[in-house]
Amino acid sequence: MILKIPFLFDINPIKTLIKMQVYHNPRCGKSRNCLAYLEQNKIEFETIKYLEQPPTKDQIIDLLKMLDMSPLDLVRKKEKIWIEKCKNQPLTNDDVITAMVDNPILIERPIIIKGGKATIARDIESIQKIA
User: Fold this and answer.
1) Which among 28, 51, 61, 81 is annotated as catalytic?
2) What's the CATH number for 18-130?
3) pTM of the entire structure?
4) Per residue in 18-64, pLDDT tens?
5) Hey, which family's this protein in (predicted)?
6) Does residue 86 carry a catalytic annotation?
7) Domain boundaries, the chain
Protein backbone atom coordinates (compact mmCIF):
# COMPACT_ATOMS: atom_id res chain seq x y z
CA MET A 1 0.00 0.00 0.00
CA ILE A 2 1.38 3.41 -0.98
CA LEU A 3 0.38 6.43 1.05
CA LYS A 4 0.18 9.74 -0.72
CA ILE A 5 1.01 12.57 1.63
CA PRO A 6 0.38 16.07 0.32
CA PHE A 7 3.19 18.58 0.64
CA LEU A 8 2.50 21.10 3.36
CA PHE A 9 5.14 23.52 2.15
CA ASP A 10 5.74 25.01 -1.25
CA ILE A 11 9.48 24.51 -1.52
CA ASN A 12 11.20 25.73 -4.62
CA PRO A 13 14.74 24.27 -4.48
CA ILE A 14 16.13 26.90 -6.84
CA LYS A 15 14.68 29.79 -4.82
CA THR A 16 15.90 28.26 -1.56
CA LEU A 17 19.48 27.97 -2.81
CA ILE A 18 19.75 31.59 -3.91
CA LYS A 19 21.26 33.59 -1.12
CA MET A 20 20.53 37.27 -0.96
CA GLN A 21 23.41 39.73 -0.93
CA VAL A 22 23.26 43.20 0.57
CA TYR A 23 25.70 45.96 -0.33
CA HIS A 24 25.91 47.61 3.07
CA ASN A 25 27.44 50.69 4.65
CA PRO A 26 27.32 50.34 8.46
CA ARG A 27 27.30 54.15 8.87
CA CYS A 28 24.10 54.51 6.82
CA GLY A 29 20.80 54.43 8.73
CA LYS A 30 18.79 53.16 5.72
CA SER A 31 21.32 50.38 5.24
CA ARG A 32 21.17 49.41 8.94
CA ASN A 33 17.36 49.44 8.78
CA CYS A 34 17.46 47.14 5.76
CA LEU A 35 19.61 44.58 7.60
CA ALA A 36 17.41 44.85 10.69
CA TYR A 37 14.30 44.13 8.59
CA LEU A 38 15.92 41.09 6.99
CA GLU A 39 17.11 39.78 10.36
CA GLN A 40 13.72 40.34 12.04
CA ASN A 41 12.04 38.43 9.21
CA LYS A 42 14.64 35.64 9.35
CA ILE A 43 15.69 36.17 5.75
CA GLU A 44 19.17 34.80 5.07
CA PHE A 45 21.62 37.15 3.42
CA GLU A 46 25.28 37.83 2.90
CA THR A 47 26.57 41.27 3.82
CA ILE A 48 29.00 42.98 1.47
CA LYS A 49 30.64 45.96 3.14
CA TYR A 50 31.35 47.64 -0.15
CA LEU A 51 33.49 50.39 1.35
CA GLU A 52 35.89 47.72 2.65
CA GLN A 53 35.51 45.44 -0.40
CA PRO A 54 34.87 47.88 -3.25
CA PRO A 55 33.22 46.45 -6.35
CA THR A 56 35.20 46.23 -9.56
CA LYS A 57 34.20 47.99 -12.75
CA ASP A 58 32.70 44.74 -14.08
CA GLN A 59 30.74 44.22 -10.85
CA ILE A 60 29.29 47.73 -11.07
CA ILE A 61 28.33 47.13 -14.70
CA ASP A 62 26.60 43.90 -13.64
CA LEU A 63 24.83 45.75 -10.80
CA LEU A 64 23.61 48.39 -13.23
CA LYS A 65 22.17 45.70 -15.50
CA MET A 66 20.40 43.99 -12.58
CA LEU A 67 19.08 47.34 -11.37
CA ASP A 68 18.18 48.42 -14.92
CA MET A 69 19.73 51.82 -14.22
CA SER A 70 22.16 54.20 -15.82
CA PRO A 71 25.46 54.81 -13.99
CA LEU A 72 24.41 58.34 -13.06
CA ASP A 73 21.22 57.02 -11.41
CA LEU A 74 23.32 54.91 -9.03
CA VAL A 75 25.42 57.85 -7.83
CA ARG A 76 24.89 59.59 -4.51
CA LYS A 77 25.00 63.10 -5.92
CA LYS A 78 25.10 64.88 -2.54
CA GLU A 79 28.40 63.29 -1.54
CA LYS A 80 31.14 65.88 -1.10
CA ILE A 81 33.53 64.13 -3.48
CA TRP A 82 30.89 64.11 -6.26
CA ILE A 83 30.12 67.79 -5.79
CA GLU A 84 33.80 68.77 -5.73
CA LYS A 85 35.11 66.59 -8.56
CA CYS A 86 32.27 65.49 -10.82
CA LYS A 87 29.25 67.77 -10.63
CA ASN A 88 28.72 69.81 -13.80
CA GLN A 89 31.50 67.94 -15.58
CA PRO A 90 30.92 66.37 -19.01
CA LEU A 91 31.11 62.71 -17.92
CA THR A 92 30.52 59.59 -19.99
CA ASN A 93 28.91 56.50 -18.47
CA ASP A 94 32.38 55.00 -18.27
CA ASP A 95 33.65 58.06 -16.38
CA VAL A 96 30.80 57.74 -13.85
CA ILE A 97 31.49 54.02 -13.35
CA THR A 98 35.19 54.76 -12.86
CA ALA A 99 34.30 57.42 -10.28
CA MET A 100 32.27 54.80 -8.35
CA VAL A 101 35.10 52.26 -8.55
CA ASP A 102 37.59 54.83 -7.26
CA ASN A 103 35.16 56.24 -4.66
CA PRO A 104 32.68 53.55 -3.60
CA ILE A 105 31.05 56.01 -1.16
CA LEU A 106 29.35 57.38 -4.30
CA ILE A 107 27.32 54.18 -4.74
CA GLU A 108 23.71 54.44 -3.61
CA ARG A 109 22.81 52.04 -0.78
CA PRO A 110 21.72 49.63 0.38
CA ILE A 111 21.52 47.40 -2.67
CA ILE A 112 19.92 43.96 -2.42
CA ILE A 113 20.77 41.32 -5.01
CA LYS A 114 18.85 38.09 -5.39
CA GLY A 115 18.33 35.73 -8.30
CA GLY A 116 19.89 37.97 -10.92
CA LYS A 117 17.81 40.97 -9.86
CA ALA A 118 18.68 43.93 -7.69
CA THR A 119 17.01 46.86 -6.01
CA ILE A 120 18.04 49.89 -4.02
CA ALA A 121 16.38 49.02 -0.72
CA ARG A 122 15.87 52.36 0.96
CA ASP A 123 12.37 51.44 2.15
CA ILE A 124 10.43 48.35 3.29
CA GLU A 125 8.47 48.09 0.01
CA SER A 126 11.69 47.83 -2.01
CA ILE A 127 13.00 45.14 0.31
CA GLN A 128 9.75 43.16 0.12
CA LYS A 129 9.77 43.22 -3.69
CA ILE A 130 13.00 41.23 -3.85
CA ALA A 131 13.04 39.31 -0.55
Assistant:
1) 28
2) 3.40.30.10
3) 0.82
4) 589 999 999 999 999 999 999 999 999 999 999 999 999 999 999 99
5) Belongs to the ArsC family.
6) no
7) 18-130
